[in-house]
Structure formats: structure tokens, C-alpha cells
Specification:
Oligomer: single chain
CATH topology of one domain: lipopolysaccharide transport protein A fold
CATH architecture of one domain: Sandwich
Strand content: over 45%
Radius of gyration: 29 Å
Order of helices and strands: HEEEEEEEEEEEEEE
CATH superfamily of one domain: Lipopolysaccharide (LPS) transport protein A like domain
Amino acid sequence: MLNHLLKYKLRVVVFATALFCSCDLSVDKPVLTDAQKKEPVGTGYNIRMVYTDSTRVKAILEAPVYLDYSNLPLQYSEFPEGLKVTFLDELMNENIVLADFGTLYNRTSIIDLVGNVSLTSSDGSVLNTEQLYWDANNDWIFTEKEFRFVGPEYNVLANRLDTNKEFTKFQTGKLTGTVAVKEETAVE
């Protein structure tokens, strides 16, 4: 009987040892669900998206690569090889934005443009910076990075920009540069 009990205990110990040795209790590797993995739900190449409002073309986005991450809790799209956005006003004047990388956040419609960002307006003025945000819902542009804005009558360098797309309402940080000012003579 004692021999039979000893064999039973030995089997339990061997089984438990095999069970615990085969388990990986490592906490270094978290287990991710498919939704948590950063894999795009869709990929597009040489894309051209046309944004319209009441049958009027407002913008055309072109990019060599488009990655759709709408499967993640924070839904967004990436343009890892750069993008070009052509904005058209009511008179069909073009304002063109180029960037090395772009992220479009779906819920807020904010586009984060990064790397060699340039905005060329229809009048020939050019804004250059390393990062620029565009709020598509409010047609608002902003950055906390240094930027240069060059046009026929100005050459401005500043460290912050907060403006509407027409640059008629704006705030900047420390501003340096030159601006041409017309002097008017008072009529007596």
C-alpha cells in the first residue's frame, strides 16, 4: 500500500512539473488582440482623393502610399512616403501643401504634416516648417515649430503660428524679418 501511495505521489509530482515547465509565464511579451496590433486594415498605392462640398471640389490629396488604421481605437490614416494636397478656393485658385509624412486623424479631421512641409499659395507666397497641423473642419492651420513665410512684400521667421487658411486672422510667437509697408501722406 505504501509503495502504491509513493508511486501515485511521484506521478503527481512528474505531471505537475511537466505542466509548469511547459508554461511560459513571461510578462515581457503582452498578448495582443488583432485590433491592438498595428496592422493597417487597408493599403493603397498612388492614391488620389477628391474632397467635395456641394459638388464643388475643395481639395485633392495625392500620395504614393496610403495606410488605413481605422481598425484601431484611435482611428487614423498614414501617408508614410509623403503627400501633396491641393486646396481650391471659390475662384479655383490653388494652394499646394507638400510634406514628407502625414497622419489624418479620422474623428477630429486634423491632419499632422511632418518633414519639409511647404505651403505655396496661389499668390506665390511660401510657408516652410518641419511640422504643420491643419484642422479640416475649421479650415485652421497651426504649428508650434519654427516657420518661415516668404512673399513679395515680406520675409518673416517666427516660432509659432495659429491662423485661418486665408492668413487674415493669425497669431505668432516671436517674430523677426522684413515687411514692406506703404507710407501714406495725410491730406490736409
